[in-house]
Design brief:
Layout: H1 4-17, H2 20-44, H3 46-49, E1 52-53, E2 62-63, H4 64-78, H5 87-111, H6 114-123, H7 126-138, H8 142-158, H9 166-179, H10 183-199, H11 202-205, H12 209-232, H13 236-256, H14 259-266, H15 268-285, E3 314-316, E4 346-348, H16 349-354, H17 364-387, H18 403-408, H19 412-418, H20 426-458, H21 462-477, H22 487-510
Antiparallel strand pairs: 1-2, 3-4
Helix pairs in contact: 2-4, 2-7, 2-22, 4-7, 5-6, 7-22, 8-9, 8-10, 9-10, 9-21, 12-13, 12-21, 14-17, 15-17, 20-21, 21-22
Length: 511
């Protein structure tokens, strides 16, 4: 009997894994859980992401994103994955995530809990695997997905989502309208879409500069994608219409774009002069620089209070003596204000967080300083990699610091509080942590994006082009923020990537 027990147990597990009905509901639970996370992140941002469990035997909290990941891992283990991945893909995924886990554990042992935070940059791609498996197995009906897209459009209409999610929601709504086959759904979708575009046209041209650049880049991608589709069939009428639409959109930048933000992106000579000016100041000050001993913290638990309904709070900022070097880093957001010497600047916290009012009227000097701020961080990262010969990157637990910012005393509220500074570029951060391997991982990511685009083009898929444009937006944003590190951005991106891969494979099966 003892010899039969393991066989019986194994048979029971095998039956569970090969039960299509169990796979269906487990996948629906997993996919629904991830969708709920993405939805709540899009309206609550870091406030939702900071919900966590504190366990007495762990020196760091377990955040809601990781809780969703652990539950999804458990569900993935129970679901049959026969036919979903070939042997080569399984080996590559195993090697990659095995390397991430071993590296995170070793670096945690040597350098502490910060290793767990930075490891997230490399383990969040597992959500693409979750989405790929769950979405295929869940067999979610197209009508149900369309209903979700139309409900989500209500968030677009009332402008209650975080700015970074606007383009993704818009693309999902356009896909839903395109797929609407019945008369009421099609017209309802067109009315919603027209209202959103007319009432929210400022989202194309205003807001954070990274968002504006992201939208512009995504629209250029769509122009190239659909231009290729139309020219393939020699459909010159829609091709001309596409060119006219693109011209009108570009013209809108000169009419509607916030002047200072637009000038800071287009006046290259002025920006170079600003960089050289501040760099000279840095060179004159660095001789007396002595690195401060700082304690390293995992994250900033102090939250700003805000509400959707009450009047926005006004927070006074400290007085400063040099408006050119003044920088205030709000948690996770680009929120930099300049003050005249001896004056206090009121900051509308609720509008900055919720982006219900996305017009940010800042001086041109402040906009340019924010660009120089990032350039200095990236310069210091490159210098540190070269000086320390860290060809395979720094430990996940190594606190990244910027000598330039510390000499100039920029963003001191951030690096003095945490003991490190955010890199403000996910791709540079990958290289900083993984070195040569990081360069290879970036090449792999863009190769996968190129293949996805090429496949959708060969399949002549309108929806595929729209899905990839949403991914393009997030990748452009990753050049200016830590998009792939933070769960409220990274989980959305990788989930969308997994869904796009499933959609491509489903179209191929139908041919």
């Amino acid at each position: 009997m003892a010899l039969l027990a393991p066989t019986a147990m194994s048979s029971k597990r095998s039956h569970m894994k090969n039960n299509p009905n169990a796979d269906l509901w487990l996948s629906r639970i997993g996919f629904g859980l991830i969708l709920c996370y993405c939805f709540l992140a899009s309206i609550l941002f870091s406030y939702f992401a900071q919900i966590h469990l504190s366990l007495s035997f762990l020196p760091f909290p377990i955040f809601v994103g990781e809780i969703v990941m652990f539950i999804s891992l458990a569900l993935l283990g129970l679901i049959s994955k026969d036919g979903l991945f070939n042997r080569r893909t399984i080996i590559l995924l195993g090697l990659y995530f095995g390397w991430v886990m071993v590296r995170a554990l070793v670096d945690y042992h040597h350098d502490g809990p910060l290793a767990a935070r930075n490891a997230a940059l490399f383990y969040y791609p597992i959500f693409a695997v979750f989405a790929y498996v769950f979405y295929q197995k869940a067999r979610v009906s197209r009508n149900f997905l369309m209903s979700l897209a139309f409900l989500a459009s209500g968030i677009l209409f009332f402008k209650q989502m975080i700015l970074w999610y606007w383009w993704t929601y818009l693309m999902l709504l356009v896909i839903a309208v395109w797929n609407a086959k019945t008369f009421p759904w099609r017209w309802l979708g067109l009315i919603f879409l027209a209202a959103i575009l007319l009432l929210g046209k400022e989202y194309f041209y205003q807001g954070a500069r990274a968002h504006v650049v992201g939208v512009l880049g995504s629209i250029i991608f769509l122009g190239l994608y659909f231009g290729t589709l139309f020219s393939k069939h020699r459909n010159y009428v829609p091709l001309c219409g596409l060119l006219v639409t693109f011209f009108i959109f570009i013209l809108g930048y000169f009419v509607f774009a916030e002047h200072n933000a637009f000038s800071s992106l287009t006046s290259l000579k002025r920006l170079v002069d600003k960089y050289n000016e501040i760099d000279k100041r840095y060179q004159s000050m660095q001789g007396s620089y002595v690195p401060k001993k700082l304690s390293v913290h995992l994250y900033n638990p102090k939250k700003l209070e805000y509400t959707f309904l009450s009047a926005p709070s006004v927070v006074p900022l400290p007085s400063v003596t040099d408006s050119d070097t003044f920088y205030l880093a709000m948690p996770d957001l680009e929120n930099h204000q300049a003050a005249a010497p001896g004056h206090v600047v009121p900051v509308n916290i609720s509008k900055q967080i919720l982006h219900s009012e996305i017009i940010q009227k800042r001086t041109l000097a402040v906009d340019e300083n924010n660009i120089v701020f990032r350039l200095f961080i990236w310069r210091d990262m490159a210098r540190e990699l070269i000086e320390k010969k860290a060809w395979w990157g720094f430990s996940f637990g190594h606190p990244q610091r910027s000598k330039s910012l510390e000499v100039l005393d920029w963003a001191k509220s951030e690096w003095r509080r945490d003991g490190w500074i955010a890199p403000h570029n996910s791709f540079f951060h990958i290289i900083y942590r993984a070195g040569i391997l990081g360069v290879f991982l970036i090449i792999v990511l863009f190769s996968l994006m190129a293949k996805l685009t090429k496949d959708f083009l060969s399949l002549e898929s309108v929806e595929g082009g729209l899905l990839v444009s949403a991914l393009v937006y997030w990748l452009i944003l990753s050049n200016f923020f830590v998009i792939l590190e933070f769960p409220y951005n990274a989980i959305v991106f990788w989930t969308l990537f997994g869904v796009a891969c499933v959609y491509r494979d489903e179209i191929k099966k139908q041919l």
